[in-house]
Specification:
Elements: H1 22-126
Length: about 140
């Protein structure tokens, strides 16, 4: 026959009481430690899931911001293309106007040249007019 050590003494008035043994105390303490370890593990898992969830939310926010930036870049690219085309068109118009002005100046210069040659030939024919070459002299001081 084996005897087990008891911690509590039974009630003497005959009502049933709780008998706590070292074995039941060990089991109870083991259950408490296991429950606290399990609670700690659950807390770590929940906190990890929370961190992952907040990280995913931040990544979604960053992706939306990058998508918005991509749309803005596309809009700016289109605006730049329009401004470049407008610049090219203006440049072509200015070059065309300069070309027309150059043609007008050349035409007027040729017209004046022909008039002066006509006047020279008239003066040489009817008088003793001598044509001198024009030399530009610079006065150096």
């Amino acid at each position: 026959m084996s005897t087990s050590p008891t911690i509590a003494i039974t009630n003497s008035n005959g009502s049933p009481g709780i008998t706590i043994t070292l074995e039941s105390t060990g089991i109870f303490l083991g259950i408490l430690v296991s429950a606290s370890v399990l609670a700690g593990v659950c807390f770590k898992v929940v906190s990890s899931i929370s961190r992952i969830s907040s990280s995913i939310a931040q990544i979604e926010k960053d992706l939306k911001e990058h998508a918005d930036n991509g749309k803005r870049i596309d809009q700016l690219d289109r605006k730049l293309d329009l401004h470049l085309q407008e610049y090219i068109n203006r440049k072509d118009v200015v070059q065309m106007l300069f070309g027309q002005l150059n043609e007008k100046v050349d035409h007027k210069f040729k017209k004046v040249l022909f008039y002066t040659r006509d006047i020279q030939s008239f003066l040489q024919r009817d008088s003793d007019f001598k044509i001198r070459e024009y030399y530009e002299h610079t006065n150096e001081e």
